[in-house]
Design goal:
CATH architecture of the largest domain: 3-Layer(aba) Sandwich
Structural class: alpha/beta
CATH superfamily of the largest domain: P-loop containing nucleotide triphosphate hydrolases
Mean pLDDT: 91
Radius of gyration: 24 Å
Number of domains: 2
Order of helices and strands: HEHEHEEEEHEHEHHEEEHHEHHEHH
Amino acid sequence: MDLDLDLLPHQAEFIQDTTTRNLALIGGYGCGKTKALATKLILLSLMNLGYQGMAISPTYQMSVKNLIPEIEEQLRDFGIKYKFSKSEMVFEIYVSGKTTKLHTYSADNGNYKRMAGLNAAFFGFDEADLLDTETFLAAYNMASSRLRKGRVYQGVAVSTPEGFKGCYKFWVEAVQQNPDLCENRRLIQASTYDNPFLPPEYIEELERRYNGSPLLKSYLLGEFVNLAGNPVYWKFTKDLNITTDTIAQFPNHVLHVGIDFNKGKNATTVAVVKNNKVYFIDEFYGHKDTQALAEAIKARYPWHTQNNAIRFYPDASGFEGIQNLKRNFPEFGTDGKPNFRYSAANPRVEKRIAAVNEKFQSTSAGPEAFVNPARCPELFKGLTQQTYDKNGDPDKTSDLDHAVDAAGYTIYKNWPLTGNVVARVA
């Protein structure tokens, strides 16, 4: 079956190479990586009729929202009959009286181990560098070990580079150390500028967002850059984002409380919103459990407690903590809207960080987020001191991440990123 392909040069180079055992397409935002991967997986399905393959995303949410819809769109465009089972997360692709099964997986939290026992011919990873290095390499090796039944054996990955993480170590560092690996490992790099179909404002927004950041090369040019030591919250400045305001300056305002659940810490930020600007004017830190935290909030803010004027933005993974807080505070406000505002899963780390930076950056009308360092010392330390580690992840070893994560839940829920910019900034 011939596919009518309309591809950018780097997409064609990636899709047409069916002989390199381990193939990667690394590129900037908007260069068409996920589309290329979807097309590649369909092509490999056709080359392995009657066999099985795997489509792997960092998380279940990314699989459902990004890769699966892209594969479905490509199958429809090519006029290929298929069925997708949501319960089993498997595509059945029907061509020439044969059925190829394409299994979809998430790799986080050890979910990649579900691939064990599957006999496959091919696999593909989407946004591979969003996984931590150890998880990606373990998942990739697991997937590679399943390539034992088919006609054309190949493992592929696409990603925007996120520092010197898994893709760099597998396709660059390992090859530098052992040049013989060139025979079965190939890296194709692409730039955002290589896609002429992107609207000009998309690239302009990326250039504006990353102006002065080392990630300009990473997220637009698709180059591996060293993120180690670069500040995570680089848009926060002591000159523009500091306030001395306290709760006294905001009488009768609703409190917006972000919570990062951690035993013995339970980092909690308290903010008010006025004229679409957010002011972090207090915090709680070091409570042994959520019941102790709830009692502390009630004691410090009796008026807000009595008048149902507190909104919570908790870490979505803290089920028990959320339930305990709901036993202490009304679940709904006087307007009927929920007091506990969170999604089924936390936003991706890079999206939350980008939203925080976006809120702190100064616009033509001035900054839109402020922190009182005297009342929020943990939040201030996190904003000014947290950096990226050698793998391109926000460093957690210094214990600076808890309060900024809590503030991030508040910001992201109220001011999520808009448009196509979903990037992490350094």
